[in-house]
From TrEMBL:
Belongs to the thymidylate synthase ThyX family. One of its GO terms (biological process) is methylation. Its EC number is 2.1.1.148. The keyword Lipid biosynthesis does not apply. DUMP binds at residues 109-113, 181, 208. Gene3D superfamilies: 3.30.1360.170. The gene is thyX. Catalyzes the reductive methylation of 2'-deoxyuridine-5'-monophosphate (dUMP) to 2'-deoxythymidine-5'-monophosphate (dTMP) while utilizing 5,10-methylenetetrahydrofolate (mTHF) as the methyl donor, and NADPH and FADH(2) as the reductant. NCBIfam families: thyX (TIGR02170). It comes from Streptomyces sp. 900116325. HAMAP family: ThyX. Pathway: Pyrimidine metabolism; dTTP biosynthesis. This is Flavin-dependent thymidylate synthase.
Amino acid sequence: MTISPALEVHAPDAPVFGPEIELRSQITVELVDHTASDLGVVRAARVSTAGEAAHREERGDAYIGGLIRYLMRSRHGSPFEHNSMTFLVHAPIFAIRHMMRHRMWSFNEESARYKDLKNVFYVPDRDRALKQEGKPGHYQYVPGSEEDYELLSTATSEAYRSAFREYQKMLDAGIARELARMVLPVATFSTVYATCNARSLMHFLGLRTNRADAAYVSHPQREIEVVAEQMEDEFARLMPLTHEAFEKFGRVSP
């Protein structure tokens, strides 16, 4: 997966309206640190029978994969907690708030109390379905027309430009950042460090991705699904046997 540096890339179809704001549709996730491996899961599980010798065991993929499948199938979840993955996420605030619903994660987010926020705001690209049909819990999203997209782009850019102008006006007048930030929309881009273990990440992926083959099909907002998909790419790379078992048993966290 290619990760673009935060605050350097314009979305291909996102125009910039005037000098005051930047509109962006690209949401980025970068793995910045980890202690994650399939072998680590096996060592954590084996300590119950092998004691301290488990920490020095070296096992082949056949054994590791078999034990991980057993743990996943039997819902023995704690061996999947002895690892960590830290992601740097650059996304609109409303998507980051979806992440923060997951309480077993650790978060550190840039603070609008201590720094001026940049003039970067989210607007969906033209591939994003715009209209909702059905009732909550049973609805689906369908594409909008070109006119719908133009309405969305115009309305959001006007609101963002007005909000950022008032925000900057208050900062220039010496109003405290923690008060000036109140006028900014949840579509303002923010940056957060997010750390989890594999068990927590699998729970997140089960809820924040839409997969027809999942035991419990979820219907997340597309923006948080973009975050989840990028995290899953890294998870599958770091822990391929765990990810394979996660897929095999319905994408349910043990």
